[in-house]
Structures are given as structure tokens and as C-alpha cells.
Fold this protein.
Amino acid sequence: MTQTTSWYERHPRLTMTAVYALILVCAELLVRAAAAAGYIPIGNFPTTDATKRFYGDNNEHFGVWHYPNRETHHFAPCYDAIYQSNSYGARDKERSRHSDAARRAVVLGDSFVEGIGVNAEQRMTDLVEAATGIEQLNFGTSGDFSSTQEWLLYRELASKFDHSDVLLFHLPANDFRDNNPSNFSPGRYRPYLRETDSGNLELFYTVDFEHRDKPKGFSTARAVRRTLYNNIYLLNVIRRSAQIYNKNSVATESESSGELQSTYDRFSDLDLKRLLFGYENIAELAPDKRFTIFIIPRQSDFDKLHKAGYDFRIVKELQKFAAQHSNVEVVDLLPHLQAYADRHKIDIDDLYLACDGHWTAQGNQAAAEAVVEAVYNSAE
């Protein structure tokens, strides 16, 4: 007598495939329901690099800069913002080169100053201007912008605008890296400093402006991956969970090893020499301006503050530099941001974008309050 077997028994592989598919479908539906209820944040990943139409290594003196009169929509899983540039390429409102105002500030820096991840009205410089009524001309830009580039941008562009103050924002986390040509393609058009036989520093470029690398967009594979993340919520959550796990694993590993990783202490003597060379040149170009250097902390710097106290090499070195100039001051934003977080009973992480590391709108607010206190509310 022949024993009857079920379809499932005759096709075990298809059966298991169907079961796995059903589990994944159910999981996807559960994640979508949780996202709709607000329990799980789902981020939108851009599938094309729209910023390539906004930035480019297009300036013959300092390399990366915004294209004039452009607009771009920049978004990521944790932010959504519109950027607009003015006629001379700054991400700022249109400004006159001449002003009769008693005070007016030129602001230099990288992506933190530019305001990555926030709209203009939420940005630090716009908040300072709103609070004081004093124009804050924002010359910050993304794109691996170094102190050498800040000096050249000030010399060639920003200094042409009437101003009384220079506010420069130093990010130890990558400003030293951005001065090192070994960290970038030799075909990328960027200015660097190198030591001569006499021990001095000289400016150089690794490629002629006419032969520089042209901007490249996302690869097809990257665009496809991001399309999948945007349309399959389960993949979206898995990717973001992996990022959080890796971040926490690195932090835990650092704690267990006893190492307190602070961006404020990771630089060599040559790194410092390159940094201060740019600052010295700005000070020489602006002898009659009030020149304030702000230090921007990352989250790891607060960890060291809490575990080892306030003792950072970069603060001491910049204070030594300032002591040699009558018009230079140094303000470390770390204690100001910590005080803001304590005052508002929030975590330091609330001041930084979870998927990116730049300031949130609240982080920009905290920084703006520190600038107003240090520059505009302090005794002259």
C-alpha cells in the first residue's frame, strides 16, 4: 500500500523558503506598524548625491566651496534640510561687502559652522544674529575644510567684507586630519603645508587646478542598497541597529582598555604647527579685529571630561598662541555645552545628530548661547 505524502513533505526546500518568507513578511508588517505608531524611527537614505551640485573643489585658492546661487535638499535618516548659497558662494543670505555697523562678524569653520543637518534659521550663526542684531557672515563649508583653507578663504574672500570680529571654529576631531595630504587623493584639489629644509612651512597643492579630480556621484550598487533601505523597513532598522551596536562596541572596548579617547589630545607637533600657521596668518591679516577661536567638542571629549577632569592639550596650546597676540581669545565650547545640558536636564547626545555627529537644532542653540556670552556679553 502506497503511503500518501503531503506537498510539504515532497518539497521541503520550497516549504522552508515559504516559511522564511512568511516570517520576513510578518516582521516587515510589524516594523511598519511600530514605525507608524512612532515607536521606531525610520530614516530616509538619499539615493543620489545632490550635494555634488552644491559643493565642488571649484576655488583656485582654497579648493572646496559652494557653487553660487544654488539650492540643494540634504537629508539622512536623522535630518532633513534645505541649503542655499548666495552670489559669492557662501551658505548665507546675501551680504553687502560694505557696512557702517560698529560690529560685524566674519565666521570661519567647517561643516559645524555651515550647519549640516539644520535649516538656516536653526543654525548657530543665524541664532547669534537674531539674539544680538549683529550680522554674522557665515563662511563655513563642508568638504574636509582645514585651517589652511580657512586662512586662504579669509585672505581671498572673507576679509573683503567690512567686519570688526573674526570668529573661527576649530574642530580637533578632523581639523588636523584635514591638513594632512596623506588622507586625501592626490588628484583632489586642496591646499596643504609642508616643511622645507629650513624647518619653515610652505603652501603647496598636489595637482594643478585644471587637472583636479571631477566630482563623482553614488555608485549603482550604493544607490540600489539605499533604495532597498528606504522601501524595506526591516532592512532600514537592521542597518541602523548595526550602526548603533558598532558605535557602542567601540565605546565599550575603549572603556575596558582604560583608554580615554579625546579628540582634544590626538595630534602631533607637526599637526599643531600646521594648524597654528594658518591661525597666525589670519591674525596678521586682521591685526585690528577681535579674533576669537572656539573649540568644538565631540561626544568622546565629554567622556574624558567626566572621567579624568578638565585637562586637554589643545586648550593649553591654543591659549599659549592667544597669549602671544593682543587681539586673540580662545573659548572652549565643551564646558558651555555641558552647562547647557545640565541646565536643561538633557543628555549631551541630545546636542548631536544620532546618525551624523553634527549639532542638532538644540546643539546649535547651545553653541549660539555660548558665542553670545563669550563675545557679545563679555566685558570689552
About this structure: The CA atoms of residues 68 and 337 lie 33 Å apart. Residues 1-40 form one domain.
